[in-house]
What does this fold into?
Amino acid sequence: MDKLLQDKSYPFEKVYQPLDVSARLKSRCEDFIVEEYIPIEFSGEGEHCWLYVRKRGCNTDWVAQQLAKFCGVKTMAVAYAGMKDRHAVTSQWFSVQLPGKPTPDWRKFEAAFADNATESLQVLQAFRHNRKLQRGALKNNRFKITLRELSDTGDEMFESLIRRCDEIARNGIANYFGNQRFGRNFNNLDQATKLFDNPRFRITRHKRGLYLSAARSWLFNHILSERISRGNWNKALPGDVFMLNGKSACFKYDGSEDGDEQIEQRLSSNEIHPTAILWGEGDGMVTSQAAELELRVIDRFPLYRDGLIAARLRAQRRACRLVPQQLGCYRDEKDFVVSFSLPAGSYATTVLTEIFSDLMVSS
It folds into this structure.
């Protein structure tokens, strides 16, 4: 097995030097608040009932199962846009397909959990619509996070924390996949290795997707780390492909002198970002120096490189830089509160790890 696959503690490069302070995350559910935003105009009719549910102390799959049970439908009739943490207070959209059925009394659904000390559900909004909720519908997530048990609660440290947040708001951070992508104790990577070692390894379609995504996310993180170490994670390389901020649209850059100044201006204003490959078959789009860098990193992981191609995953691009929107922060006595909005697929923990030297996560 590749040495780098065995070493799950591989230290990915940071954009900023973390401040010399540790903090505890998720001491209680209310310390990690997430709100989904999906831009949609509801038709007011149709066989799908959309619900905006606030949940506490329970995961997304469990909520979907409870909705299916209450509505008397199969679990596959319940859809959601993305998974949300259990140890948190999260508000997210679900849709339930109810052909020919009246809208349920959601107050009764809420009442079933009224006396539950650890798990609670509240239906904040409900609408009829003519389409189900799709996985790609989520635009962004809004976070409000409280960090407790700071190792340094002096005035100077809080001033440094606020300055760091201002710096991140201006210049962005590395758009790494967070550790949750790789499973508890990096189990998803271990399972991906088993899958690539033995193509007959029998698993469900859902788990297969998790393991494949973990493998190519690991490769992406290594490419991004390499670009940070070379000082070009937020700069143009000949042959680069750029992504528009807040969009999935990409365009190629050939490195010609005529476009250099314009590209640099757009990079400086965070209008565009360099990208790195989400490895798979097909055109990776990059050429020249950018392609050489990516392939040099990918070739360190022949098992993942060949396994993802054999799995027929299509190559995609992901922005190297992430600029949190509406970033704010403040001191709350001995605690530190930070809030921001991130596009779907980006991780709040990647923001926090550019601020704190160590994050202790309560489970």
